[in-house]
Amino acid sequence: MDPQSHSQSPPPAAEDDPDAMPREQQQREEAPPGYVPPMSPEEVAAVEALLGYEFKDKSLVGEALTHGSFYLPYRSGDSTYERLEYLGDGVLTCLVSREVFLTYPDLPPGPLTRLRAANVDKEKLARVAVDHGINRFLRHKAPKLEEQIADFVKELGQYEYHSNGLLDAPKVLSDIVESLIGAIYVDSKYNQEQVWQVFRNLADPLISLETLGKHPVSELLEFGQKTGRIVDISKDGWVKDTKVDVFVDGVLVASATYAQKKEIASNRAAKAALDKLKEMSGQSDVQSAPAEAPEPLDELDHYGALELQ
Amino acid sequence: MDPQSHSQSPPPAAEDDPDAMPREQQQREEAPPGYVPPMSPEEVAAVEALLGYEFKDKSLVGEALTHGSFYLPYRSGDSTYERLEYLGDGVLTCLVSREVFLTYPDLPPGPLTRLRAANVDKEKLARVAVDHGINRFLRHKAPKLEEQIADFVKELGQYEYHSNGLLDAPKVLSDIVESLIGAIYVDSKYNQEQVWQVFRNLADPLISLETLGKHPVSELLEFGQKTGRIVDISKDGWVKDTKVDVFVDGVLVASATYAQKKEIASNRAAKAALDKLKEMSGQSDVQSAPAEAPEPLDELDHYGALELQ
Fold it and tell me: Is Hydrolase among this UniProt entry's keywords (chains A, B) (predicted)?
């Protein structure tokens, strides 16, 4: 994707002069501060179509999809998606709060907060980006990002709604969903209902009490409490080989490694331990997260503290 | 304050029967789930006057000002301010995000986020409650809350805008500002402009880049980096005597105790150390937070990570 090639007023070419700056750089040098290289009208239209929203100010689309690496070298003041992402995070927090508040008129504040967090969450929003192909329009020059996105897309299918901490979603994917939401908020003159209409469609189905699922570390600790066993999620091996071990009553039950983040390794080790314990006990004393939670409020209370960390 | 005495339909008195429940309790037993004991019309009008907002549904005022301790014993389903507080937090996050976004059109996301956090902050909102006397209308039966509020009010005057972590604001005070904001959001049929008008007046002046100030722990660590000294904020004494010590190049410079929270003790110890270092150096190498920040962006970058913890 090279949006530069579509820019509306290219500076005069200087191909004869060997010392001349590349056209792209020269164009940027001449631009006022805060200038965002435009996206092509075709690309803008494609983004509008997938959002179901037509922008009055088309430059907001380009800004919302521009990663810092797109400018090489990055200069202080270059416009990236980050300011719109900040604003989008704010408006989503409000609108998801309201949706959950209205959907569950008797739900206490603890589960309300967890449902909000699950829906304005890095993995949930990264799924939204992938489901709708928003990532195809991200403007960047960081090859590593494409690798991370590809890895995430590959693993995504294993989890219907949310991995509950087993996947490491690339932040850039949730960022551009939030920045596009922020862009719509600005473009619509801060019309929260228009923002909600777009997000509601993109994020369907929202994570509900029934699909919230359990965090594996919390579920494992809960299992320990219920059955009187000593559960130890040991990170001693982390420094040497990025490994996390789970011991139950002193016996090594499962391990997991994940080089990038200790938390993901812990979650995966806890999940592996739970799977093993379930297999061993024939499901007798370890409950999996049920598809239909019979008593969702009681269950939520057990794993709230950890989930929000 | 005894709103029960103003309730509109008192049950028949049963004063002759020594085994009879107190009237308040009996009234509650007979009420449907989710019932909120009403506030008197005089009290509702006083709250409306200080908010500058007239409620269509007056019961929201009572709900927004009812602490769980008001019900003794508390039964699952009793209505407290917590659901409205959750909603108010969501809408404030959005509206303060927008205000900061519009006020500082060139500010990077880091400082934007810190300004938002400073204005939707426990101490800032607790100040709003005290400044407008909202706490006088809180309905509770926890004498300890009054003590905590009184202590906070006593110390508040020492800091013009914000103590940056030196004061331990009672959460209940920020909670009822958020719950009243949530109540207005519901009552106005989710009209964010009406909510903003009320909050903008209550919270004036909002914390700005100029008044954001520095977090003492961050400032102390920054001082260490700048001057090549080894700063150690030691919490070893915490268990024994709730004391935090600050060592600079191995020399004890200052200590502070605060029985309730280690974090507040650390902040106070860091502040005491900074004051001492400034005195010793005649201000030569330790900079206080200036009233007019000459280069606010650069300065903010140094202490962002800690401030948001």
Answer: yes
The answer to whether B195 touches B91, Cβ cutoff 8 Å, is yes
Which of A34, A86, A192 lies nearest to residue B97, judging by beta carbons? Answer: A86
Q: Is B192 on the interface with A (CB under 8 A)?
A: yes
Query: Considering the domain B1-208, what is its CATH architecture?
Result: Orthogonal Bundle (1.10)
Q: Give the confidence band of B193 by pLDDT, cuts at 50, 70, 90.
A: very high
pLDDT band (50, 70, 90) for residue B214: confident
Model ipTM?
0.78
CATH topology of domain A216-288: Double Stranded RNA Binding Domain (3.30.160)
Are residues A135 and A65 in contact, defined by beta-carbon separation less than 8 angstroms? no
- CB of B210 closer than 8 Å to CB of B293: yes
Share of chain B above pLDDT 90, in %: 47
Using alpha carbons, list the distances in angstroms from residue A173 to A80, A246, B105: 14, 31, 24
Nearest by Cα to B295 from B63, B111, B40: B111
Given a contact cutoff of 8 angstroms between Cβ atoms, the answer to whether B216 and B271 are in contact is yes
Query: In chain A, where are the structural domains located?
Result: 1-209, 216-288
DSSP chain B: --GGGG-SSPPPP-TT-TTSPPHHHHHHHHSPTT--PPPPHHHHHHHHHHHT---SSTHHHHHHTB-GGGSSS--TT---THHHHHHHHHHHHHHHHHHHHHH-TT--HHHHHHHHHHHSSHHHHHHHHHHTTGGGG-B---HHHHHHHHHHHHHHTT-SS--SSSS---HHHHHHHHHHHHHHHHHTTS-HHHHHHHHHHHTPSPP-TTT----HHHHHHHHHHHHT--EEEE-TTHHHHSEEEEEETTEEEEEEE-SS-HHHHHHHHHHHHHHHHHHHHTTSS-PPPPSS-SSHHHHHHHHHHHHT-
Which of A302, A299, A281 is closest to A289 using CA atoms? Answer: A299
CB B235 within 8 A of CB B183: no
Q: Which residues of B touch A82 (CB under 8 A)?
A: 108-109
B64-68, B77-81, B211-215, B297-301: least confident range: B297-301
Residue-wise pLDDT for A58-78, tens only, equals 999 999 999 988 887 777 778
Nearest to B94 among A94, A106, A112 (CB): A94
Distance CA A251, CA B97 (A): 50
Q: Is A197 on the interface with B (CB under 8 A)?
A: no
Judge: B101–A87 Cβ closer than 8 Å, yes or no: yes
From CA B6, how far away is CA B139, in angstroms rounded? Answer: 14
Q: What is the mean pLDDT of chain A?
A: 82
Domains B1-208 and B216-288 share a fold: no
Please report, in angstroms and rounded to a whole number, the separation of the first and last CA atoms in chain A: 38
Q: Looking at CA atoms only, how far is residue B91 from chain A in angstroms?
A: 5
